[in-house]
Amino acid sequence: MKTLTGNQQLVKQINKTLVLETILHEAPISRADISQKVGLNKGTVSSLVNELLEDQLIYESGPGQSSGGRRPVILLFNDKAGFSIGIDLGVNYILGVLTDLRGNIIVEVNKKLTVRSYEVVIEILQSVISDLINAAPQSHYGIVGIGIGVPGLVNNHGEVLVAPNLGWKNINLREEIENCFDIPVLIENEANAGAYGEKLYGAGKENDNILYISAGIGIGVGIILNGKLFYGMNGFSGEAGHMIVQVNGKDCTCGSSGCWELYASEKALLEEARKLKLTGITEETLSIELLLELANSGNEDIINLFHSIGMYLGVGINNIINIFNPEQVIIGNRLTMAKDWLEKSIEKFIKNHTMKYHQKDLIISFSKHAYYSAAIGVSAQMIDQFLNNAVSILDAQ
Amino acid sequence: MKTLTGNQQLVKQINKTLVLETILHEAPISRADISQKVGLNKGTVSSLVNELLEDQLIYESGPGQSSGGRRPVILLFNDKAGFSIGIDLGVNYILGVLTDLRGNIIVEVNKKLTVRSYEVVIEILQSVISDLINAAPQSHYGIVGIGIGVPGLVNNHGEVLVAPNLGWKNINLREEIENCFDIPVLIENEANAGAYGEKLYGAGKENDNILYISAGIGIGVGIILNGKLFYGMNGFSGEAGHMIVQVNGKDCTCGSSGCWELYASEKALLEEARKLKLTGITEETLSIELLLELANSGNEDIINLFHSIGMYLGVGINNIINIFNPEQVIIGNRLTMAKDWLEKSIEKFIKNHTMKYHQKDLIISFSKHAYYSAAIGVSAQMIDQFLNNAVSILDAQ
DNA sequence: TAAATTTGTTAGTATAATAAACAAACTAAT
DNA sequence: ATTAGTTTGTTTATTATACTAACAAATTTA
């Protein structure tokens, strides 16, 4: 039974976490400054800091500048007390990163995927993880967790229920990987992963209510409310790509029709481009990258096509802004490549359609880490999990 | 500065609240049962219960049944320690209720509104509140708060920024009423109020992730996540009536086009009914009530019209289910009157369009308290606020 | 050189939960 | 009727942890 009652351990855990987070975000900082900043007594801070030193989660780095009295002892967060792994499992690639506890990328592994069958992909995935584990420097806590972002529906138990573009169904990925490496594993939807990456390290650092639009082959939305990912009842929140923006519109593979992603995704872009019957372009060479080149060299049809996609992105973004009243919308994933061609159309549509009060103080950005958002996002989630655990478990004895 | 640190008072407040809520929800109950149930030590429970007795928030009602030993002392929540006021400020009515601390309606006041100008309405509103205050029985805490649900955009400071159907703009309603009665006042959007009412006392009792669709003249959505109302950055969340479901669709007064509420609200229903040019029906007599009579007497056109409205309700509900993955959707406000004609169309649309995994375990209901949802909802919010305050302030001395 | 200031530690105090013992009130078995 | 066992609620002693206040060390400033 999970206890809901208050007690001394709870108090200590709250305060120890508070001190650790203060050091994490405000370092270099002294004990006295922490006491001042968070409102804990100097003695309390001293004793919690000493525990954190023992835990090796922080370290002292000699005396700092005096401000007219005894010189303070500078405290720093121990980035390198452990490392975390984040994997972005894409439709035709695997990107793996090893990060330190501050989320800095230490090692990166890229693999192209030519096959999508589970049996093959899982082997490549395991080899990527092995490589990253082997590449990790010696540290006190070792690899603290493995996070994996997946383009599909993931439930609360880490099972991939369905990943349409991979052709996967009902795969207990978490159990599989956890058994293999004996390290805590988190399976996360790719949009959620990206959202968290941008919230912690990217365009969303300053905000706590963020909608991250993952615009790739399909469209998914990562929802961050009050600084935390929102999952819904079973973990399926954010399937905004299947919101209907055109009643009786195009048929969708999901069984519905008129879904947003049929008009505003990479899939939509390529499909419309096909209709233009461009000379010298085959099904193999057709790609966003190519369309961007054409647009950059002045092809009006393609430019208009991007504007149309931008307009339709605006439609869906308008809808979620009116529903959520977020502080920030971040557009991420593959379509960010076309930022220069999309941005104005999106902004224009929002300006002309979204409720005026909802537009006030609203920030619309493109993802900062683009390619890395999802990988560093899941890595960060494992770090959070580890630090929370560290603070509560380590003082249990 | 609001303290974020943990300390003894925090622990006590958590536990005292826990004990109070247990009594509120599980009464009649003994000290021993509480200890067993929440996991607090018997002595701790005893001392907290004694404080709550002193606060008059609970009372003892003599010995209960023995289960083979000393007979327990039965504890009950003191419903009547104070009273709360909830107002539903509609477009053409004011409904006011006085409730006890359990949300039971004690007195009810109804006023028709023929005028909408702020100056007139505010006077009627004040008289309704006065009547309710005067009708309240003598009690230890008196009137603990006044909640007012308003059909418009309300910000975090209790200002009504705009209420289109009332023709109001930038009105500091909270300050006005608070100055008048010197009792804490909460101004709440009508959809949020309804959502909370249904969550606490109605169709949503069992669930913590609920979307309440307030389908009246327009459409608003009250969003309950993890058991709490979600407000967004400025308090404007839930304007789902202005989500676009038809690109380049009908023009909306909000400046956009193709908005959901143009196809699925009471406004849409009446407009479509007008187009049917029904004999013997004037602009004055046209109403949902009348259309229901016609449908009930077998008018095919009207029946089809209701089915069409139901289908369009399904479109928007589909969208928010895919986005939120909620446990429950509750349809409330005026259109609930047409439940019998709408229900099947809505369910059919959801069944055929909404993602299969999102449909699993999903509950779609109509509001239980219909006419009263909003009024008891805001009243309940004031009760919550009062009880929270009571527990933390009363032990501060 | 002395006074003032800042930092970090320590000793004692306060608060609130817990464990354990206990008394009172009751049931059930003999 | 007597006795044993059970349940309830209180009390006492213990424990964990934050807080207050005093203090020493280190440093700047007058």
From TrEMBL, chains A, B:
Transcriptional repressor of xylose-utilizing enzymes. It comes from Caldibacillus thermoamylovorans. The keyword Ribonucleoprotein does not apply. Keywords: Carbohydrate metabolism, Xylose metabolism. It comes from the Bacteria. This is Transcriptional repressor of the xylose operon. Pfam families: HTH_24 (PF13412), ROK (PF00480). One of its GO terms (biological process) is D-xylose metabolic process. Belongs to the ROK (NagC/XylR) family.
